[in-house]
Write a structure and sequence with these properties.
The protein is mostly helical and 162 residues long. The chain is built from eight helices and no strands.
């Protein structure tokens, strides 16, 4: 079971970075609903390292919150949607998406060897900050205009139904 959690989490992150939000929601949402049922019934609490399962569940819920914001028309199970609203509604209302991404993402590594002749900050931190900057610049910043466009489309749809 720990291998399945790790595989699903990293597949969800990979789908997020590839802009395949629906696939990320489908993969991570299925496991999150399974884990939520397991926590409610107590089956997952009996397993060793259940606290680690809960931490991974929290990170996957944050990942789902980010993906459902970027792709709002994809359906997620109602109990998971409720959990997302309870835990991350404040961050989503303040548009603190980078904080949400920092919480749910793993530490990224740089594929290049560092130049040891120059003193510089840790290459792992640089890669992580670079990924955060790219996500903010290319994915999250344009969402403000998309949100305004969605509201106009909903308005026109409701007017057309009258």
């Amino acid at each position: 079971f720990p291998a399945r959690i790790s595989l699903t989490y990293h597949a969800g992150i990979a789908f997020l970075m590839l802009r395949r939000y629906k696939d990320a929601i489908a993969v991570v949402g299925e496991l999150c609903s399974f884990m939520q049922r397991g926590f409610k019934t107590g089956q997952l609490r009996k397993l060793p390292n259940s606290d680690q399962f809960f931490k991974n569940f929290e990170r996957m819920i944050a990942l789902l919150a980010l993906c459902t914001h970027l792709c709002p028309n994809h359906n997620v199970e109602e109990s998971i949607t409720k959990t997302i609203r309870e835990k991350h509604s404040a961050q989503l209302s303040k548009e603190a998406y980078t904080e949400l991404f920092v919480f749910c993402s793993p530490k990224f590594i740089s594929p290049f060897l560092p130049d040891f002749s120059k003193p510089s900050p840790a290459p792992i931190e640089n890669a992580h900050k670079h990924q955060i900057r790219l996500l903010d610049q290319y994915e999250l910043s344009p969402q403000a205009t998309f949100r305004e466009l969605r509201s106009f489309l909903k308005l026109y749809t409701s007017v057309a139904k009258l």
